Amino acid sequence: MRLALVLFAFCLAACGSSEEAPTEATETETRSVRLDGRQLALDGFAGEVSLVAVPGLKEAEVTFTKRVLAATASRAEGRLREIEIREAGDDALYQFVWRTEQEGASVDAEVRVPFSADVVVRLGAGNVAANALRGPLDVELGSGSIRASHLRSSEVRLETGAGDVTAGAAFLSPNADWRVETGSGRLTLLAPATASVRIQAESRAGSLDLDPDLPLQDIRQSGGPAGVDVRAVLGEGSARIRATTGAGDIEILRYKEPAPESQAARETAPVRQDTTRADSTAR
Fold first, then answer.
1. Within 10 A of 112 (CB to CB), how many other CB atoms are there?
2. Burial of 197 from C-beta contacts in 10 A (0-12 / 13-18 / 19+)
3. What residues pair up with 200 in beta bridges, in sequence order?
4. How far from chain centre, in Å, is Cα 260?
5. Does 129 share its domain with 257?
6. How confident is the model over 35-62, as pLDDT tens digits?
């Protein structure tokens, strides 16, 4: 009996080891468009989206990386062709849309835009990172994290069904209006100590951490046994930040300029002349 069990276990192990792991196929392409004041919209089903504002850039450049998992390399490569990336535009909007009916597929987008670009992102599932933008930013995810850093935008809306959200302001104009929301996840808000902004943040289930280096005034805190509702003012309170999480902690921190030699500092620093643009496509 013991011998039979040993042989059965050995057979299961051998059969299991013969199964091949899924194979990933990828395909990369780069597209560019001159916005000329038009809004740039990115609308996808799943993947990672990275946005960065680049000094002197005249066109929006988007590098798409399609990814597909399948049982064999040939099947994966075949399924890549079923992912559609469409683009269209008019006088007010230029849009990239990617769709597929296939499971195990995603599309990553690395996006370089001019400083003042107006950007909208819609994603079913995935993560979004935005850096150094100065124009309006509107991000909505079904699920996934959002990290917006070194922003100088007056209009910001960041919303995800589930995931952490970081909203970092390098500068807030007096008329700035930011809205940040997650159904479940941690909220991190960063503002300069010299900003003039009114902050309202609420968590139905979570704690609050206030940076002692941020000179907040008129702090009013309330909430139930598990949640927190805080209102505070920096300076004269001209701009406005409203943030909500259904379940998660809230951090309100002082924004600190990046080190002069860092990549972030080079991306956020103003420039007086245009840079030279070079197109490239990786495959």
1. 19
2. buried
3. 231, 242
4. 24
5. yes
6. 999 999 999 999 999 999 999 999 999 9
What are the residues facing 50 on neighbouring strands? 110, 129
Q: Are 154 and 228 members of one domain?
A: yes
Do 68 and 192 lie in a common domain?
no
* Range of lowest pLDDT (7-11, 18-22, 32-36, 151-155): 7-11
Which residue type does 30 have? Answer: T
Tell me how far apart the alpha carbons of residues 257 and 265 are, in angstroms, rounded to a whole number: 8
- Asked if residue 79 lies in contact with residue 70, where contact means CB atoms within 8 angstroms, the answer is yes
User: Per residue in 166-188, pLDDT tens?
Assistant: 999 999 999 999 999 999 999 99
Hey, what are 234's tokens? 């920096």
Distance CA 159, CA 246 (A): 12
Task: Please state whether 40 falls in left (phi above 0), alpha (psi between -120 and 50) or beta.
Answer: beta
24 sits in which H/E element: strand 23-33
CA distance 77 to 6: 40
Residue with tokens 């392409």: 29
Residue ending a domain, among 113, 132, 151, is: 113
275: in domain: no
User: Of the ranges 8-17, 53-62, 149-158, 195-204, which one carries the lowest mean pLDDT score?
Assistant: 8-17
Q: What is the pLDDT of residue 258?
A: 81
Which of 102, 156, 100, 118 minimizes the C-alpha distance to 42?
118
